[in-house]
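Q: Given only this backbone (432 positions), what sequence would you predict?
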């Protein structure tokens, strides 16, 4: 999707919406909105204080780590990807490390500070009324639930187990999912219970009536990793908005028993998706199975209708495979293929250095950003009222900054009196 197409599609209505949004942003909150937002922001701050008193925590992060995470959250909050009529920001890439590096009771407040810092430019340029900072604070409520769960479960360590050498990002966790699922009702809020019950019912249905705790989660080892990487779409239509692929990697205790169950669950899930998509008159997924280096890979591809252009959902080509005692469940067939090959080639390694380790490849991160340059430019045009040229320069400045980063390594180890944090940032001349 080029910049011209995005701007042309908005027409006069798009310009009107931009002007209305900018006018509202520079005005203070009114009436009921002001009262409700103020109460929500105040209640959030009270909950932060209550968390600090109830769960002081055993972690003692350095000022440098605290500043790094808050600054990272502020930057992530300003990167937005539009998907259909909605949008997404990659703040989870910073929020998850916060949960495992900071005292959980401190995380919600750090999220709020990060969001405020991310919005600071708008306040200084008078593009946002200062009173609207209350909206930012009130929108930080989502961090409270995650922090509370981590605090109630005893501040578990994150474990970065194994992953291919060249990937954009990895998030990993050491957790006994079976025990956690059995205790979910006591660990999660009352409001989440209906959704948890629905998830339990769905998992049982996918696994032919099996118990999620005893037959699904108990079959997995405690080390889990979520691998995120760029898609090249070499063998598939290229969508306008390109999203990275994500793959769950987990140890399996008994692969001979669990592999067939996972494959049946995958087929059932795709069947459910196709039924839903048929009701919405959307293109269906077609399941295929093939062998890759002796490993059976099951995948689903969209079957576009004649003359239909690839949409955002074309990013999805879900796939599942079991390699030796490794389970792979991903959103991208291309990525799952790469992981299968890496496992067979022994191109995986254990990441050492303690309970938490992060390694980011600068070139991979830059490639992800470049894929959606036009989308980012259009976003700045629509949201900030910039010209196409101004928005292009702003995005190119960001890309140039990313191009100077060769790699980033962060490792955290436990010490007698707290945590030892080692951060290495390698800078270069930029990607060719």
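A: Predicted residues:
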């Amino acid at each position: 999707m080029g910049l011209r197409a995005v701007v042309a599609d908005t027409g006069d209505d798009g310009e009107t919406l931009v002007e209305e949004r900018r006018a509202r942003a520079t005005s203070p909150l009114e009436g009921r909105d002001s009262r409700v937002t103020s109460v929500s922001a105040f209640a959030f701050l009270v909950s932060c204080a209550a968390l600090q008193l109830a769960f002081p925590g055993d972690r003692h992060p350095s000022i440098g780590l605290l500043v790094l995470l808050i600054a990272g959250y502020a930057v992530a909050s300003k990167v937005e990807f539009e998907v259909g009529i909605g949008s997404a920001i990659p703040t989870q890439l910073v929020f998850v490390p916060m949960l495992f590096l900071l005292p959980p009771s401190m995380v919600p407040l750090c999220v709020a500070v990060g969001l405020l810092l991310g919005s600071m430019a708008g306040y200084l340029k008078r593009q946002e009324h200062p009173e609207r900072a209350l909206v930012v604070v009130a929108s930080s409520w989502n961090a409270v639930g995650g922090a509370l769960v981590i605090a109630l479960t005893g501040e578990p360590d994150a474990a970065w187990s194994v992953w291919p050498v060249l990937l954009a990002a990895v998030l990993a966790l050491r957790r006994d999912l079976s025990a956690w699922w059995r205790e979910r009702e006591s660990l999660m809020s009352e409001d989440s219970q209906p959704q948890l019950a629905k998830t339990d019912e769905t998992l049982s249905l996918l696994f032919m009536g099996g118990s999620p705790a005893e037959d699904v989660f108990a079959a997995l080892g405690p080390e889990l990793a979520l691998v995120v990487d760029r898609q090249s779409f070499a063998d598939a239509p290229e969508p306008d908005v390109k999203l990275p692929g994500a793959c769950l990697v987990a140890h399996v205790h008994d692969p001979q028993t669990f592999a067939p169950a996972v494959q049946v669950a995958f087929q059932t899930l795709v069947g459910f998706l196709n039924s839903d998509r048929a009701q919405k008159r959307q293109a269906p997924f077609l399941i295929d199975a093939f062998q890759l280096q002796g490993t059976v890979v099951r995948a689903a591809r969209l079957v576009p209708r004649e003359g239909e252009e690839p949409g955002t959902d074309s990013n999805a080509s879900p796939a599942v495979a079991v390699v030796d005692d490794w389970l792979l469940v991903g959103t991208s067939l291309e990525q799952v293929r790469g992981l299968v090959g890496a496992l067979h080639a022994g191109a995986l390694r254990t990441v050492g250095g303690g309970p938490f380790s992060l390694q980011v490849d600068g070139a991979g991160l830059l490639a992800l950003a470049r894929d959606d340059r036009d989308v980012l430019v259009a976003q700045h045009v629509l949201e900030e009222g910039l010209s196409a040229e101004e928005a292009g320069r702003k995005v190119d400045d960001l890309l140039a900054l990313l191009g100077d980063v060769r790699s980033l390594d962060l490792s955290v180890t436990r010490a007698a009196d707290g945590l030892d944090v080692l951060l290495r940032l390698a800078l270069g001349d930029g990607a060719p």
